[in-house]
């Protein structure tokens, strides 16, 4: 039987990679809807789009962290209320929901990786809006709702830290990069594969519902990520200079520690992701990043 999937936010970095992953499976029929095609804050439109789907992957989100600080109600309309609409529609149609969330639901004060069941305590409006969506999934889909928290995403499509570093390398001799915030750089293609595997496991009853952490193994800082990006791209990593987060004041506070644990994947029969260094090396070998690295090397 062909399984019918819906991917919301299909024009974004992760949404495009999820669609590419699903397209490789002949047993899957996937429909992607961009933000202009489906506003998840529109309850009626959501119910129409979800009807008849076996799995819904929600990649739609308000992702501008600083703008959320100034417009929390608008951010929550998407990240909270919009997700509630999706969860309610999935409950009515019997669909599995895979909802993508964030490490920003945590305070960032831990000294060890956050387990999936660790207490949440967001420090900014964006984190609060995303936590509202998580709670909607847990409340309305206790047996068929999956929240997958991720962090520090980069990929071939759209803006990301890795892309920005390579673009800046063309214009600046040295780059100051924050060295006191810790996290897990995660390739969107790797997360897309994990989401597809989780959805299939959910359909066969092998994956318990609830929260999973979809980030790369290991940990580093923004400085460490920039340093490794330069090294793997054939650029001089000594051009990267470590600074504290205080050097770049932002409207929204950022958690200083966003490292996530991956304890639930074995129970779902889905492998955890590889280390962030392996993912970065593979990503930088793809055309989108290889061309940027070549331009940075040519610029000297």
TrEMBL record:
Question: Which biological process terms from the Gene Ontology are attached to this UniProt entry?
Answer: dTDP-rhamnose biosynthetic process
What is the protein name given in its UniProt record?
dTDP-4-dehydrorhamnose reductase
Pfam families per the UniProt record, alphabetical: RmlD_sub_bind (PF04321)
Enzyme Commission identifier(s): 1.1.1.133
Q: Which organism is it from?
A: Streptomyces pacificus
Sequence similarity: Belongs to the dTDP-4-dehydrorhamnose reductase family.
Q: In which pathway does it act?
A: Carbohydrate biosynthesis; dTDP-L-rhamnose biosynthesis
Report the protein's function: Catalyzes the reduction of dTDP-6-deoxy-L-lyxo-4-hexulose to yield dTDP-L-rhamnose.
Key word 4Fe-4S present: no
